[in-house]
Amino acid sequence: MAVDYAVIVVYLAGMLAMGWWGMRRAKSKSEFLVAGRRLGPAMYSGTMAAIVLGGASTIGGVGLGYQYGLSGAWMVFTIGLGLLALSVFFSARIARLKVYTVSEMLDLRYGGRAGIISGVVMWAYTLMLAVTSTIAYATIFDVLFDVNRTVAIVLGGTIVVAYSTLGGMWSITLTDMVQFVVKTIGLLLLLLPIAVVKAGGFSEMKAQLPTEYFDPLGIGGETIFTYVLIYTFGMLIGQDIWQRVFTARSDTTARWGGTVAGTYCLVYAIAGAVIGTAAKVMYPDLASADSAFATIVKDELPVGVRGLVLAAALAAVMSTSSGALIACATVANNDIWSRLRGVVGRGGGGAGDEPHDEVKGNRAFILIMGIAVILIAIALNDVVEALTVAYNLLVGGLLVPIIGGLLWRRGTAAGALSAVCVGGVAVVGLMWHYGILANQPIYYGLLASLAVYVVVSLATPPTDAAVLAAWRERLAGRGEPAPEEALAHPSPSGV
């Protein structure tokens, strides 16, 4: 294992080095949170693919292939479909808004009264997403170094928190590009063909396994529909995804770069399912489907290649974890703390007006949220339940007011707030009644949110014409940039 260890150590050292490089570049809020909104198509595509394809997509995707065959690709496939839908239909408008968070978008659209509640919901989602990604380190480091769960979580989490805190989005972007390359080589170019060959080829796989393993709908229509509701719609509205859209240097980059990333996700989904199906042939009696990835890597790959593939799995987890962490910290600082700070300042003698270093403040929030994520990950055991709660809250509470705000002029702030509250409460109550993993909470919660949004919006006065006019200007890319961004990107006349 010495060569494998060397590969992993070099990889981890590279992540920290890029964090240090990013720190030297991130000198403004825009640079720190959204990489200065300067990413071109190649880097944007790689980082977007990296953020959406995490441990669940890699280890979990192979596990679903082990359990259900080729139809196990549907979970990751719906993630790719969501990214394609976001890129084709919404990303250009989102990029032109020049905001930092989803809640800022809601404030612009509804007149400044929808942000803080939506911020709390989005913060809960990004926190749990970061926690579930951090827990996945335990699986990988157990295979690598045979360490216990707590040490694995602390080790992996500390590295991610370190490079994210140092350089913000620039560090995360650079590490994501490396992670994207490592995942492509490790999973698609190495593990996929090796697994198929070791299983005897597709003809042997078909001979050894039941026919339903090769049925595209074998996982079940209801399960596929639920994946669409949770993951496809979740891709449309998550802060972690939107924050990557904000990094694009133009709306064209956001549209076409995201389309390439979405297509890559579809390929990745099929590859994971095929690897899992091959593992079922080689190891038909594993105690847990999620152990299929680690088992096939540990037992079937040659020295060096094994280290690279494990680095690919580590890359998948780190990319999602770091993206969720900076999203969580951004929401906590910009949508919750800054608003509370402003209220306290107005009521307590101007404390909210004191000047402060925004890069330093955001860096501190990443560190604080990172420590909290590591501690929660150590205490939490069930990853699937935590991730389900996160996505149910996100989709049930925020999908309707966000998409409604982008598509329906008659939507109002009262309708948006009602939809967030009713949808969020409904999914929590229904999860308590039916069980966290049941399908009913997201079905009924989403319907309740939609019904309340439409009824309350129609029953209340339309959004102020001046607010809608300013909103249309920002959507068209004609709105004024924030003063800090103007400094980060001076016009030729100011040089």
Automatic annotation (TrEMBL):
Tree of life domain: Bacteria
Signal peptide: none
Gene3D superfamilies (UniProt xref): Sodium/glucose cotransporter (1.20.1730.10)
Single GO MF annotation: transmembrane transporter activity
Keywords of this entry: Membrane, Transmembrane, Transmembrane helix, Transport
Cellular compartments per GO CC: plasma membrane
Residues spanning the membrane: 6-23, 44-66, 72-95, 116-140, 152-173, 180-197, 217-238, 259-283, 303-332, 364-383, 389-408, 415-436, 442-471
Alphabetical list of Pfam families matching this protein: SSF
UniProt main location, coarse: membrane
CDD domains on file: SLC5sbd_u3
Tagged with keyword Repeat: no
Compartments (UniProt record): Membrane
Membrane-protein topology: Multi-pass membrane protein
InterPro entries recorded: Na/Glc_symporter_sf, Na/solute_symporter, Sodium:Solute_Symporter
Family indicated by similarity: Belongs to the sodium:solute symporter (SSF) (TC 2.A.21) family.
Protein name: Sodium:solute symporter
Organism: Streptomyces filamentosus NRRL 15998
